[in-house]
Amino acid sequence: MTGPRRWLLTPGPLTTTDSVKRAMLEDWGSWDGDFRALTAEVRRRLLAIAAAPEDRYACVPMQGSGTFAVEAALLTLAGGGGRVLIGVNGAYGQRMVEICRRAGIAHAALGLDEGEPLTAAAVDRALDDHADVTHLAVVQVETSTGILNEAAAVADLAAARGVRLIVDAMSAFGALPLDPVRHPYEAIVFSTNKCLEGVPGLGFVIVRSDALAAAARHGTAPLSLDLAAQWAYMERTGQFRFTPATHVLAAFRQALDEFDAEGGQPARLARYAANRDALVAAMRRLGLRTLLPDALQSPIIVTFLAPDDPAYRFPAFYEAMKRRGFVIYPGKMTAVESFRLGCIGAVDAEVMRGCAAACAEAMAEMGVALPGA
Ligand SMILES: *Cc1c(COP(=O)(O)O)cnc(C)c1O
Question: Quick one: pLDDT at residue 372?
Answer without folding.
Answer: 80
